[in-house]
């Protein structure tokens, strides 16, 4: 692939990420609301009544993450791996997902923490910018707390990058060869649903850590209060976003 073609392809992917946010950001706000404790959760009708300004809270943070960091890096890493290591074999694809997740996890952990602070920690952070929130976290808690969810984020991204880089191409080939459906959209939507469901427990742990400034063990202990379903809070809006 020529440099020009690579730039065009990456630009198309980034534009697609912006389009995804048009629907995905309100779904993410709904998901975050469901992952809060009952006493902190807004009734769905009240969340809807708050209007677009609430639905699109932290949109700039999400767009910055996806357009300038997440999408370029994950697809660049995927393309480089495929060119040098090939695309065949389950072990190869698992290794690729682990490698990509290792690369993107620190940045994702930081951006996701900022997004959560803007969405559901407004009493503490108000309408502060990304830079202002980073500065406050650093001053109050040190550098490490800028990346508070490394373990849960790695597990979530391992599932998600595996879906983008492995499950979606597999399903495209399967649908084409066995069902006569040659659709990247169907394969991508199916992979999105599958990987969102598999990674949902890790996303819930991550969100709980970010919203309440606790470690992963404390987040997991919440299962004793709310049962196994605690891990699957917000599954519906997150799955809808994965399909979108």
What is the number of helical segments per DSSP (H or I, 4+ residues)? Answer: 12
Oligomer: single chain
The secondary structure category is mainly alpha
Fraction of residues in H or I helices: over 70%
Characterise this structure.
Helix 1 (3-34) packs antiparallel against helix 12 (235-243) and helix 9 packs antiparallel against helix 12. The two termini are 28 Å apart. It is globular and about 50 Å long. It has twelve helices and no strands. With 244 residues, it is an all-alpha fold. The mean pLDDT is 84. The protein is 79% helix and 0% strand.
What descriptive keywords fit this protein?
244 residues, globular, 12 helices, mainly alpha
What secondary-structure arrangement, pairings included, does this model have?
Layout: H1 3-34, H2 44-49, H3 52-55, H4 59-85, H5 90-120, H6 122-125, H7 130-141, H8 150-179, H9 184-212, H10 216-220, H11 223-226, H12 235-243
């Amino acid at each position: 692939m020529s440099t020009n073609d690579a730039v065009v392809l990456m630009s198309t992917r980034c534009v697609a990420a912006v389009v995804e946010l048009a629907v995905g950001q309100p779904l993410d706000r709904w998901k975050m609301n469901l992952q809060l404790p009952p006493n902190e959760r807004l009734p769905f009708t009240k969340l809807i009544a708050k209007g677009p300004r609430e639905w699109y809270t932290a949109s700039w943070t999400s767009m910055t993450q996806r357009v300038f960091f997440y999408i370029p890096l994950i697809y660049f890493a995927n393309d480089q791996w495929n060119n040098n290591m090939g695309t065949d074999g389950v072990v190869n694809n698992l290794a690729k997902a682990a490698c990509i997740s290792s690369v993107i996890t620190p940045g994702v952990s930081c951006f996701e923490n900022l997004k959560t602070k803007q969405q559901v920690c407004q009493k503490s952070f108000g309408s502060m910018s990304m830079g202002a929130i980073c500065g406050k976290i650093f001053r109050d808690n040190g550098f490490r707390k800028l990346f508070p969810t490394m373990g849960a984020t790695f597990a979530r991204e391992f599932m998600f990058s595996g879906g983008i880089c492995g499950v979606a191409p597999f399903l495209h080939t399967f649908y084409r060869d066995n069902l006569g459906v040659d659709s990247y959209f169907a394969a991508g939507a199916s992979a999105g649903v599958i990987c969102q469901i598999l990674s949902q427990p890790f996303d819930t742990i991550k969100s709980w850590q970010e919203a309440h400034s606790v470690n992963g063990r404390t987040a997991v202990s919440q299962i004793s209060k709310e049962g196994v379903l605690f891990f699957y809070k917000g599954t519906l809006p997150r799955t809808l976003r994965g399909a979108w």
